[in-house]
Design brief:
Blueprint lengths: L10 E3 L7 H11 L5 E8 H4 L4 H8 L5 E9 L3 H10 L6 E6 L3 H12 L9 H15 L4 E4 L10 H11 L7 E5 L3 E2 L2 E2 L2 H18 L3 H7 L9 E4 H6 L2 E2 L4 H12 L5 E5 L19 H19 L6 H28 L6 H24 L6 E2 L2 H7 L3 H14 L3
Parallel strand pairs: 1-11, 2-3, 2-5, 3-4, 6-11
Antiparallel strand pairs: 5-9, 6-9, 7-8, 10-12
Helix pairs in contact: 1-7, 6-16, 8-9, 8-13, 11-12, 12-14, 13-14
Length: about 400
């Protein structure tokens, strides 16, 4: 596939997919003696009933180097949590489920809200944040990976390739982002990354001028991928958005806190397919509609922290600039798909671009109308300063949920 991204800002590892899984796992087992590894799986209960997660668990059963697995379980009642305990019980690693809707974790959440430290809304970001807190409380892992639970093409080599750069004892990487071709069933996928993020970053460069931050984001081959690995200390200082801006927010925090020499991206799969979000044109609170709003706001917020000021006129100019870049890219994607024997529906692509362009204005209005919005969940460093024993009590609550009566 053609490459429409700039490269060279961060280290980019190619062709790890050519190494056998067994060879990678053998080395990772050696690395694990010095850098124990854990995995976070943020999950909705509905994903336990879907086609992907059971196969993912079957693959994870075979992974020899993982020290622990932490599952964040959202939207589950008591019976569903008990079902989840049984569902994940075949994992041989030290496995714990965070029942985020259970009374014990709800009580801790209410306490955090009293201190002004809780997540304001449920979502993937909140789920990952609580899992990160539990990882810190357990102290079992110095390298932590994360991936989604709806990957239909999952095989355990994906995880090995993701963990390798951060786990290697002679490497100095603190964070690794995974990427892969978004192709499935003969179609070119990855609409939000292709049709929103890439042209939006280029439009922002035109409207706001060249900025290291925008070049940095544009250097990632797939900035919206849900697969990354990091040193455990990254989890302490990072602030996470609670909404669909999680991935952009995490990358933004890393650019603020770490040298670019400590960040890398890696090719982790030859094929990748997962549950596709609907566009949801008529519902701004779901699907790609909501996702595009949250991602746009995340970018505006970050640029504001770097001294960029926006007005209504700026957002109108940005919309027009974005629209032109996006239409040009659709043509290039169409040619790319044709050359590779893939299908691409130009009509639906342009419909998505029209929705995203409209949402750039809406996100701008929301950004300007809510100057006191608290966009990030506080870092765990701040939480520990305010409530020193909270992580200890979280660990106890999770242990009681997993081993006792609920």
């Amino acid at each position: 596939m053609s490459d429409f991204h700039q490269n060279g800002i961060i280290t980019d590892f190619h062709n790890l997919t050519r190494r056998s899984v067994e060879a990678l796992e053998q080395e990772l087992c050696q690395f694990a003696r010095r850098r124990p590894m854990g995995l976070i799986l943020p999950s909705l209960f509905s994903e336990l009933e879907g086609p992907a997660l059971s196969a993912i668990v079957d693959e994870l059963v075979k992974v020899p180097y993982l020290n622990e697995i932490v599952i964040g379980l959202d939207r589950a009642d008591r019976e569903q949590f008990l079902y989840a305990r049984e569902f994940f019980s075949r994992l041989p690693q030290h496995t714990r489920i965070l029942w985020n809707d259970g009374p014990r974790l709800r009580a801790l959440d209410a306490e955090l809200e009293e201190h002004g430290l809780g997540a304001l809304e449920p979502g993937k970001g909140r789920n990952v944040w609580y899992c990160a807190g539990y990882m810190l409380s357990s102290g079992r892992s110095t390298v932590v990976g994360l991936h989604d639970c709806d990957i239909l093409t999952y095989e355990r080599g994906l995880l090995a390739r993701l963990m390798y750069p951060v786990a290697h004892p002679n490497f100095n990487y603190s964070f690794c982002k995974g990427y892969y071709p978004r192709i499935a069933e003969g179609k070119l996928n990855g609409r939000v990354s292709r049709l929103l993020v890439t042209p939006l970053l280029r439009a922002l460069k035109t409207v706001c001028g060249p900025m290291p931050y925008l070049d940095y984001l544009d250097s990632f081959r797939y900035p919206l991928s849900g697969e990354f690995a990091m040193r455990s200390e990254v989890l302490e200082g990072i602030r996470m958005p609670a909404d669909w801006g999680l991935e952009i927010g995490v990358l933004s925090e890393l650019q603020r806190n770490y040298s670019l020499r400590q960040l890398c991206q890696v090719d982790i799969a030859d094929a990748y397919d997962h549950k596709h979000q609907p566009v949801s044109e008529d519902d701004p609170d779901s699907g790609l509609n909501r996702m595009s709003l949250d991602i746009s706001k995340a970018l505006y917020r970050k640029l504001a922290t770097q001294g960029i000021t926006f007005s209504s006129e700026d957002f109108r100019t940005l919309k027009a600039t974005y629209y032109r870049f996006a239409l040009d890219l659709i043509e290039a994607y169409d040619h790319d798909a044709t050359m590779n024997g893939l299908s691409l529906d130009r009509h639906s692509e342009e419909q998505a671009v029209e929705l995203f362009a409209s949402n750039l204005l809406e996100a701008g209005n929301l950004f300007m109308d809510n100057p006191r919005e608290r966009p990030f969940i506080p870092s765990w460093n701040r939480v520990q300063a305010a409530v020193p024993d909270l992580l200890t009590r979280m660990h106890e609550a999770v242990e009681l949920d997993n081993q006792g009566k609920v």
